[in-house]
């Protein structure tokens, strides 16, 4: 018995020892969770204070930046509950350490730093402490944490809390933080920052959402209800609570409660305006009901009243006028549509004209005479507001905003000039041509051809040659324009076309030629062309053997691809240029089409009068999609977009470019230059 009891006691001792070890491990783990995982040792001061200069000292030895000759510090600063980022160059001291001094605001609660070489957005080398971070929390002059310190600590380590504030710091999302640690930080921040919750409550709630998981919604509702108990909440506070409850929490009952309070206490304020906007019914299938809701909004919150005291809610009026404008246009209330232009700014008016007039012109949904009357009524009003600065908020840079305004106005003028040309109102069309920006007058090939038609309609032969030469200089020519230019040249040279090609080449500016050469040089590749057996429009087959000894241009296209179709005139120019050159071949390969893709392609190309060697991409036996050859080239392309041009020589894809610039002559010149360079290879 005595020996038996000894064994029992020994077992109990071993069990207690194991439990003690487990408890110690748990305590150690809890201690670990209670501490941030970032490293503060790169900051010289042990307890930095807001308002004082902060010294950063970085030892790059045995790290990725050890051999860098220029190190920068990217600072992620949490100040007054907002993140901001700046970069500072560091200096290497005599000890081989990189240093920099940072001016710190008294309201700065936390600073994170990432060391890097090169461009912060795409650094050559960087050090962020193996994705754990370098950071330090700051204190006030009495040594107390600065409001936001605990939120900053959490948000720096959990980017979802920072909501983009620490974008670029981590290469991958850091490991999740312990829920208990997060809860403790939330409690500490509420105790520290108290009634300032308007500044930080969204960040706090993101923190609590991570910490509480499935219990979060109940907490958030309780938090907001508790806030609403304050009868003296400002309009701004109610507005913040409304936005969070409606769009994040999606609690309709609580949203209605806040909404009612806003409308009762602040019926003409910014928050009421925002609520009223959200209650418009833009998604309604009943266009009359939707239009009425916009009209009601504008009666209650007129644009002119907002213009007298503007705030950051200009986007509401942009959306409302876009909705009401489409409503009037689609229901043919054209007088009301035109009247909108008495009030709206350039940015809004431009969008209404783009969305309604341009679409109606393109898709022929409204008779041209009616469309002309509307467009002619609104365009002068739009032009009168072109310098109102309404794009400044989009670009935050006057030069860029002005450039965008001119581009947009050129596009609207393009539509109007096209309409006038169709209606044979040539004199008016020519007048509007002079309203185009200097950059826009000759840079658009399609518009240049329309201008040629206008001059021919006016029988203004003196202006035709200058137009053609200026268009050639900008390399924005169409086949018809080349035909006209050549006919004028032949007339001037007694039918002798010798020297015509040199004449056309000399019209192009040296700058344009240099840009074209640079563009082509950027698109050289060396990729094995997949084997293929492709059917042509006549039911015959083409294989790699047919391309032996040739330089072959391939254009991947589809009938549903508008840019592909727009590029056809340029491809026709290329075909015409090399039609007698046996060393060059051009093939148009239809791809990624559905149904009877063969008939679709053949009928479209022949119906439009193009003289192309047409091929059909094969059907992929695994997916049953018509993209077998094209998809094998996607690794070269980097994406599956079309149009896509390649040039094949000796079984290798040597050139590759995508998209369409809008100029047939530029496309011809690009591919011609690449062909000639390949021809001259030794």
UniProtKB/TrEMBL annotation:
<keyword id="KW-0732">Signal</keyword>
<feature type="signal peptide">
    <location>
        <begin position="1"/>
        <end position="34"/>
    </location>
</feature>
<dbReference type="Pfam" id="PF00578">
    <property type="entry name" value="AhpC-TSA"/>
</dbReference>
<dbReference type="InterPro" id="IPR036249">
    <property type="entry name" value="Thioredoxin-like_sf"/>
</dbReference>
<feature type="domain" description="Thioredoxin">
    <location>
        <begin position="523"/>
        <end position="680"/>
    </location>
</feature>
<dbReference type="InterPro" id="IPR013766">
    <property type="entry name" value="Thioredoxin_domain"/>
</dbReference>
<dbReference type="GO" id="GO:0016209">
    <property type="term" value="F:antioxidant activity"/>
</dbReference>
<dbReference type="InterPro" id="IPR000866">
    <property type="entry name" value="AhpC/TSA"/>
</dbReference>
<dbReference type="InterPro" id="IPR050553">
    <property type="entry name" value="Thioredoxin_ResA/DsbE_sf"/>
</dbReference>
<dbReference type="GO" id="GO:0016491">
    <property type="term" value="F:oxidoreductase activity"/>
</dbReference>
<protein>
    <submittedName>
        <fullName>TlpA family protein disulfide reductase</fullName>
    </submittedName>
</protein>
């Amino acid at each position: 018995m005595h020996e038996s009891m000894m064994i029992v006691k020994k077992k109990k001792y071993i069990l207690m020892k194991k439990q003690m070890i487990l408890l110690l491990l748990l305590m150690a783990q809890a201690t670990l969770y209670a501490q941030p995982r970032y490293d503060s040792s790169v900051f010289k001061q042990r307890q930095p204070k807001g308002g004082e200069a902060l010294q950063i000292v970085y030892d790059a030895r045995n790290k990725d930046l050890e051999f860098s000759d220029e190190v920068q510090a990217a600072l992620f600063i949490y100040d007054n509950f907002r993140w901001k980022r700046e970069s500072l160059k560091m200096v290497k001291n005599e000890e081989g350490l990189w240093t920099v001094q940072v001016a710190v605001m008294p309201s700065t609660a936390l600073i994170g730093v990432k060391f890097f070489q090169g461009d912060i957005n795409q650094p050559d080398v960087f050090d962020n402490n193996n994705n754990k971070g370098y950071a330090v929390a700051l204190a006030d002059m009495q040594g107390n944490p600065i409001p936001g310190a605990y939120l900053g600590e959490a948000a720096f380590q959990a980017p979802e809390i920072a909501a983009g504030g620490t974008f670029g710091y981590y290469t991958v999302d850091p490991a999740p933080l312990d829920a208990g640690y997060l809860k403790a930080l939330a409690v500490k921040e509420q105790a520290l920052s108290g009634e300032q919750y308007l500044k930080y409550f969204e960040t706090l709630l993101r923190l609590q959402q991570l910490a509480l998981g499935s219990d979060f919604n109940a907490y958030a509702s309780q938090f907001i209800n508790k806030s609403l108990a304050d009868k003296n909440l400002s309009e701004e506070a109610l507005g913040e609570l409304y936005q969070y409850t409606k769009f994040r929490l999606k609690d309709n009952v609580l949203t209605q409660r806040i909404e009612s309070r806003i409308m009762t206490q602040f019926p003409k304020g910014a928050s009421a305006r925002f609520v009223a906007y959200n209650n418009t019914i833009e998604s309604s299938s009943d266009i009359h009901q939707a239009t009425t809701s916009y009209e009601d909004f504008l009666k209650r919150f007129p644009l002119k009243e907002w213009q007298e005291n503007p705030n950051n809610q200009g986007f509401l009026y942009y959306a409302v006028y876009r909705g009401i404008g489409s409503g009037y246009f689609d229901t043919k209330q054209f007088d009301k549509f035109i009247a909108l232009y008495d009030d709206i700014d350039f940015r809004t008016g431009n969008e209404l004209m783009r969305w309604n007039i341009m679409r109606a012109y393109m898709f022929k949904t409204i008779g041209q005479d009616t469309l002309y009357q509307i467009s002619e009524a609104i365009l002068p009003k739009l032009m009168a507001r072109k310098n109102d600065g309404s794009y400044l908020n989009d670009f935050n840079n006057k030069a860029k905003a002005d450039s965008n305004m001119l581009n947009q106005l050129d596009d609207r003028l393009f539509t109007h000039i096209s309409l006038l040309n169709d209606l044979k109102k040539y004199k008016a069309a020519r007048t509007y041509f002079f309203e185009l920006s200097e950059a826009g007058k000759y840079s658009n090939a399609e518009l240049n051809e329309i201008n040629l038609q206008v001059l021919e309609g006016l029988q203004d032969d003196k202006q035709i040659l200058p137009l053609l030469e200026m268009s050639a200089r900008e390399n924005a020519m169409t086949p018809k324009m080349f035909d006209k230019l050549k006919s004028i040249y032949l007339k001037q040279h007694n039918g002798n076309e010798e020297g015509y090609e040199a004449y056309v080449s000399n019209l192009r500016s040296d700058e344009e030629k240099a840009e074209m050469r640079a563009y082509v040089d950027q698109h050289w590749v060396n990729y094995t062309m997949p084997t293929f057996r492709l059917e042509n429009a006549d039911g015959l087959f083409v294989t790699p053997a047919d391309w032996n000894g040739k330089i072959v241009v391939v254009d991947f296209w589809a009938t549903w691809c508008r840019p592909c179709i727009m590029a056809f005139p340029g491809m026709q120019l290329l075909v015409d240029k090399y039609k007698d050159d046996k060393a060059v071949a051009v093939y148009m390969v239809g791809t990624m089409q559905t149904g009877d893709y063969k008939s679709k392609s053949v009928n479209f190309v022949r119906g439009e009068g193009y003289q192309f060697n047409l091929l059909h991409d094969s059907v992929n036996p695994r997916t049953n999609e018509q993209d077998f050859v094209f998809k094998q080239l996607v690794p070269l392309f980097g994406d599956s977009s079309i149009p896509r041009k390649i040039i094949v020589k000796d079984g290798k894809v040597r050139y590759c470019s995508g998209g369409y610039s809008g100029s047939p002559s530029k496309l011809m010149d690009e591919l011609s230059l690449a062909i000639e360079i390949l021809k001259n290879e030794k």
